[in-house]
Amino acid sequence: MLNQDFLIRKMTEADVDSVRKIELESFTAPWSRESFQLELNNKFATYFVCDFEGEIMGYGGIWIVFEEAHITNVAVSSIYRKKGAGKALLTQLVEIARKKKATHILLEVRPSNEPAFNMYKNFDFIPTGIRHNYYSDNNEDAIIMTKYLT
């Protein structure tokens, strides 16, 4: 298990190419390199990477606007899945939301992404709605999940 050895730190411009590689292998409608670069300059956004000896294992991002936080994405490279990186990133995202006084965190997850859905459930996110035809690649619905922090 690697979770004793990896580091969760803020994403930098130098990480964007590695993050983009993970994005491409993880999602059917991946964000562009420019999207990640813009996020690094978004004052409402915070992005973290999971770094194992200089290699990026995964990343996660969150927007926090007043009392509301929204997890934009969490992804782990296929070679590092099931080693605790996703849980470590999600823990860090929840912590930053608490520090910035958010009262709740929202995210969307595909119904077909059962591992992610179950991880969010284990972090006390609960299904609170459906966004119909949310994903543009196949019109799959999104399950809205919410974690209340108060």
From TrEMBL:
UniProt superkingdom: Bacteria
Q: Which compartments does it reside in? A: Cytoplasm
The catalytic activity of this protein is classed by the Enzyme Commission as 2.3.1.266
A GO molecular function term, named singly, is: protein-N-terminal-alanine acetyltransferase activity
Provide the top EC class. transferase
**InterPro entries referenced in this protein's UniProt entry, alphabetically:** AcTrfase_RimI/Ard1 (IPR006464), Acyl_CoA_acyltransferase (IPR016181), GNAT_dom (IPR000182), N-term/lysine_N-AcTrnsfr (IPR051556)
* UniProt domain N-acetyltransferase: residue ranges: 6-150
Q: Name one Pfam family in it.
A: Acetyltransf_1
Keywords from the named record: Acyltransferase, Cytoplasm, Transferase
Establish whether keyword Acyltransferase is in the entry: yes
Keyword Metal-binding in the entry? The reply is no
NCBIfam families, per database record: rimI (TIGR01575)
Task: State the similarity comment.
Answer: Belongs to the acetyltransferase family. RimI subfamily.
Stated name of the protein: [Ribosomal protein bS18]-alanine N-acetyltransferase
The organism is Candidatus Syntrophocurvum alkaliphilum
